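Severity: low
Component: inverse-folding endpoint
Summary: output formatting inconsistent between runs
Steps to reproduce: submit the following structure tokens with default settings.
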């Protein structure tokens, strides 16, 4: 057994040097500062040293402690055993055991691995860790953490401040990230692979892999992605799915969710889907959704398979692109551009005669289509401080522009003829023009306006005919302007 002074006479102070072939590249050197007990054996250059409670410090500022260690002078490897603490700047790692090549800056840690970045509020947990320290060609620390799962808590830090606050001095929420494997590249980027799950305030994210900018400005999810967002004002939850999803933040607040490839968003009482769905937020509140069709698909495919689609209760809107405007979680308007069409099977709540399948739907279409919904109305008269419940939005106006057409049914009158099995027949109205405007009240059509109108109006014969199938009387209502 050697005391500490004798040890330094026999063993060079710089313990962990790579072989001479690489000696010219060395810059990082780690020295033994203290140890309770030391044993060393072997010839110079190939010594094996056993240390109790060692404390090492390196020329780059790295500090290492453990219950015991074994250093192999020939390879520059040091095995650290029991209560390992590895400190680099403000970042500290703790594990049950580790192996460290000081000259290469490579650390492998196992068993209850914990990494804490005090200045950034970062905390990482796993079962295995590989750290490649910043060194010459490696411009940033690269850290790999595995676990069942591995997890990380990351709090974005403003580049100009040591505090994590938004523009209005509100604390920026931390992100809790879980995955099979986590990769951290410096303090810039985190990547996660396998069973990825992220919790951030009102957001929950799921996917096969993730890319996370540590300044909090952007998060990307890839493959089997799903995002749930809870609106704090309305209490409603929106779910987004897609092949990949990009999430953008501004000053710590959610700004955009962009889903690409087989995308779908489900909100309130509706859903919208297409090749891309974008959701825009203001003050963490959803206020606009945009979807578009896939322009790269073959033109020989059915049009319906290409169109962006929004389903709102029992009303379906299609077009090359669709934009929805919302307020307090309620739909205010829907705009479809390009081969736009709106279809409902119950606008007039009319029973359909099976002998006339062409009258199964009410519809309106044109080059573009705008649907306006009722403003959200509070139920009762609560005090301003109370959060009121709201009625569902209903359609108030539909307007088709350019090559406009519409077809709708009107409930039959009390004296209208019935079909052969006694079902009352509806009135049918078809019209086309440059622009068609339909106004509704409580879901019933009350008025129509048409520019340069053409069309017809079909009305059941008032006198019942119980022998033959009911007949229609044709009354032209719209004539071409001259």
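Observed output (run 2 of 3):
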């Amino acid at each position: 057994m050697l005391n500490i002074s004798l040890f330094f006479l026999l063993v060079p102070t710089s313990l962990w040097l790579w072989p001479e072939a690489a000696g010219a590249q060395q810059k990082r050197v780690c020295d033994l500062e203290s140890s309770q007990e030391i044993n060393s054996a072997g010839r110079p250059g190939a010594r094996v040293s056993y240390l109790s409670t060692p404390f090492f410090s390196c020329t780059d500022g790295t500090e290492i402690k453990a219950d015991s260690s074994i250093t192999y002078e020939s390879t520059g490897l040091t095995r650290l055993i029991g209560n390992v603490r590895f400190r680099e700047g403000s970042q500290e790692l703790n594990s049950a055991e580790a192996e460290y090549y000081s000259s290469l800056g490579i650390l492998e840690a196992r068993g209850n691995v914990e990494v804490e970045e005090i200045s950034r509020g970062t905390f990482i947990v796993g079962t295995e860790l590989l750290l490649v320290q910043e060194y010459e060609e490696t411009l940033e620390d690269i850290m790999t953490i595995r676990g069942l799962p591995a997890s990380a808590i990351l709090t974005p830090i403003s580049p100009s401040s040591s505090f994590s606050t938004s523009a209005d001095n509100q604390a920026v929420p931390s992100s809790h990230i879980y995955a099979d494997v986590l990769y951290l590249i410096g303090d810039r980027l985190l990547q996660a692979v396998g069973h990825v799950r992220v919790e951030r305030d009102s957001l929950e994210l799921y996917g096969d892999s993730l890319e996370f900018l540590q300044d909090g400005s952007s998060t990307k999810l890839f493959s089997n992605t799903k995002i749930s967002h809870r609106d704090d004002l309305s209490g409603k939850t929106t779910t987004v799915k897609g092949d990949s999803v990009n999430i953008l933040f501004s000053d710590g607040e959610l700004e955009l969710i962009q889903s690409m490839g087989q995308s779908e968003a489900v909100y309130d009482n509706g859903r919208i889907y297409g090749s891309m769905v974008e959701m825009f937020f203001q003050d963490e509140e959803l206020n606009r959704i945009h979807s578009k069709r896939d322009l790269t698909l073959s033109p020989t495919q059915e049009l319906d398979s290409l169109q962006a689609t929004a389903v709102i209760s029992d009303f379906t809107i299609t077009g090359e692109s669709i934009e929805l405007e919302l307020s307090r979680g309620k739909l205010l308007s829907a705009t479809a551009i390009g081969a736009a069409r709106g279809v409902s099977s119950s606008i007039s709540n009319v029973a359909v005669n099976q002998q006339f399948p062409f009258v199964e739907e009410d519809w309106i279409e044109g080059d573009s289509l705008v649907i306006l919904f009722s403003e959200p109305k509070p139920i009762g008269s609560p005090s301003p401080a109370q959060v009121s419940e709201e009625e569902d939005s209903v359609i108030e106006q539909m307007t088709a522009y350019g090559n406009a057409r519409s077809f709708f049914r009107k409930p039959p009158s009390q004296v209208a003829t019935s079909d052969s099995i006694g079902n009352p027949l509806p009135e049918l109205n078809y019209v086309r023009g440059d622009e068609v405007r339909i106004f509704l009240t409580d879901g019933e059509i009350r008025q129509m306006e048409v520019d340069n109108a053409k069309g017809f109006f079909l009305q059941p014969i008032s006198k019942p005919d119980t022998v033959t199938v009911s007949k229609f009387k044709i009354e032209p209502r719209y004539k071409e302007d001259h």
